[in-house]
Amino acid sequence: MAIIVVGGMIGAGKTSVAKLIGNALGSDIFYENVDDNEILPLFYTASEEEQELKRYSFLLQLEFLSSRFYSIKEALVHRNNVLDRSIYEDWYFAKVNNDLGRISNLEFSIYEKLLTNMLEELDELPKKSPDLMIYLTGSFDTILKRIGIRGREFEQDINLVNYYETLWSGYDDWVDNHYHASQVIKIDIDKYDVVNNPADAEVVIELVKNKLVEMGQLEPATK
């Protein structure tokens, strides 16, 4: 069986897909640390002045990096896990916030050194990296709709739309040209809604299982 990470934009449905695939494969599931993250609401709601003074963007990236490092260390010890976003995507968020001026060049340099050290530590584990990323991709309209439906109050501010669009606009390029940790299967969230359409959920499960069979990570189903 494989180690699988589920990647994609804020609101894309990573948690739902991780749960769906984890249950279908009988895997443990490692969820992104959101509910217990005290910095996340501050990152979304602080004014520019507060962001500059408190450095919430940098602190948030360190918090996520720490929790994702912990999760992937636990996952890579075994052969059968699903992670709701992984340490590999964390760099992309840090880079976008650096480009936007929310993380300084010095902070980003420190962040990259820490990430490099963490990834080198992973080389010492029984398994070095995931086998497969399930990447959820789709239109920006669908992303905004799903963020709205999810209803986290701190994500709803209209002033965040430009930030979301900046993240969204470069995500496909990051996956296509900068992510090399594993093979990738793309799921079009404009086409498949695994939460509200059971038939879509079954299709996504089969797409992932077929990919794992192709990779030699899953035995073909017997007729």
From TrEMBL:
Species: Ruoffia tabacinasalis
GO cellular component terms listed in the entry, alphabetical order: cytoplasm
Name used for this protein in its record: Deoxynucleoside kinase
Residues annotated as the enzyme's active site: 84
Keyword ATP-binding found: yes
Pfam families the UniProt entry points to: dNK
Keyword Hydrolase set for record: no
Chain residues that bind ATP: 8-16, 146-150
CDD domains referenced in this protein's UniProt entry, alphabetically: dNK
